[in-house]
Every structure is written in structure tokens, then in C-alpha cells.
Design brief:
With about 130 residues, this protein is mainly beta. The chain has strands at about 5, 10-15, 20-25, 35-40, 45-50, 60, 70-75, 80-85, 90-100, 115, 120-125.
């Protein structure tokens, strides 16, 4: 059973930075694709970034490309989302998710991810 726990959210001014972490339980973390999604009030959950099992491939939503970086440490069972140049429109609850299906390549659709964390709030003030 996969359990995910996000941390690192908070309140930051526009232009600032935050690093989100997602700690995962399970012995086969290195076999999971990992993703970050976000959901703003009144909006649907949207894809932010994804990283392949080995970390060799990363994917980003156009809205965050060049500002966010996803990375992982398979030895620590942790995936990170480094966010910089934050904008008020980045305000949302951020969720990490795991795709343990083994299907290649990494996917960006939320339905591909079977396991989700509880989310961490990120608020960017203008």
C-alpha cells in the first residue's frame, strides 16, 4: 500500500520560492512514476509536473515551465517540487501522486495515478 505525505507549503509573496516535499512509504518507490498536481478553489485538479521512475525524464505544465523543477531521491523515498518566481495564480492545494503501474512512459493524466497524498496549501500573495 502506497502512502504519501506532502510538506513544505505555506504563504509566500509573489516572486518568492518554496520547496514542497512528498515522503512515500513502500519498498518499491524507485519503480513508481511520481507527479504533482494542484487544485485551486472552484477549479479542477490540474497537472503540474511529473518525473519518471529513474528521474531521467521530467514533464511540466506550460504554466510552470521554467519556474518549477521536479526531482526525486529514490534513496530517501522522496519527491520534491522546487517552485520559484511564484505568482498569485499558483495559489492552490498541491498534491503528490504515485503511479505504481509500471506503464511507460510517465503519464500526465490524473487518472493514471492511483495513490494520492492529502495535499499541502500554497498561497502566493500579490
Amino acid at each position: 500500500q502506497v502512502q504519501l505525505a506532502e510538506s513544505g507549503g505555506g504563504l509566500v509573496q509573489a516572486g518568492g520560492s518554496l520547496r514542497l516535499s512528498c515522503a512515500a512509504s513502500g519498498r518499491t518507490f524507485s519503480r513508481w512514476h511520481m507527479g504533482w498536481f494542484r487544485q485551486a478553489p472552484g477549479k479542477e485538479r490540474e497537472f503540474v509536473a511529473a518525473i519518471s521512475m529513474s528521474g531521467g525524464n521530467t514533464y511540466y505544465a506550460d504554466s510552470v515551465k521554467g519556474r518549477f523543477i521536479i526531482s526525486r531521491d529514490n534513496a530517501q523515498n522522496t519527491v520534491y517540487l522546487h517552485m520559484s518566481s511564484l505568482k498569485p495564480e499558483d495559489t492552490a492545494v498541491y498534491y503528490c501522486a504515485a503511479d505504481s503501474s509500471g506503464i511507460e512512459p510517465v503519464r500526465v493524466a490524473a487518472k493514471a495515478y492511483a495513490s494520492w497524498g492529502q495535499g499541502t496549501q500554497v498561497t502566493v500573495s500579490s
